[in-house]
Amino acid sequence: NAAQASPTARFVGLALDLEPHAQPAWKTATPTAKRARLEDFLAACTALRAHLDTHGGRDLPISAALAYWLDRLPPDGSIGWTSPADRDDWFARLARAVPTISLMAYERPRPAAIVDAAAWELAHFPGRTIIAVRTRLGVEWQSLADLTAVLPAVEAAQSTGIDLENYE
């Protein structure tokens, strides 16, 4: 990246979309095993940060996509967080490697529900939380007008921006 003479030819950051919860084993994993998978995810983020720092990429920020429900404590959530402090510590350690998270607040049709899904991270994540909205027309949104109607309200409710996602 640093070898590129023109700043426009350089990457400005890396966006990770690893999603440990999307792996088939997650569905049958115990809460303790899910918690361990999040430690593996954190280790991967930390290793990437260290690799970039020692190989000329210190100036490249990393962002990571996270499911909105990862912060939920038992019994509401399925992660084996041992306490609020355990959860808070994990997010604090994540912020040291990944200063920005893109919180996937999918399958929520109203601005208030979208912002509510990100409320904990917006208030507690030590870095920057950007709300991600999936743009699947005909699935989550009946029309482009339905989607574009919610975006200003979501953006107005928080000042970090919106990530628009669609992998189809």
Task: Please tag this protein with its features.
alpha/beta; about 170 residues; five-stranded parallel β-sheet; 5 strands
Question: In words, what does this structure look like?
Answer:
With 168 residues, this protein is of the alpha/beta class. It contains 6 helices and 5 strands. Helix 3 links the parallel strand 2 and strand 3. The model has no long low-confidence stretch (mean pLDDT 93).
Helix % is: 40-55%
Task: State the oligomer.
Answer: single chain
- According to DSSP, the number of beta strands is 5
Mean residue pLDDT: 93
What gross morphology would you assign? Answer: globular
**How many angstroms does the end-to-end distance come to?**
29 Å
For the largest beta-sheet, the strand count, sense and barrel status come to: 5 strands, parallel
List the secondary-structure elements in sequence, H or E.
EHHEHEHHEHE
Structural class by helix and strand composition = alpha/beta
Strand order of the largest sheet: 1-2-3-4-5
β-sheet strand percentage: 5-15%
Low-confidence stretches: none
How much is the radius of gyration in Å? 17 Å
How many helical elements? 6
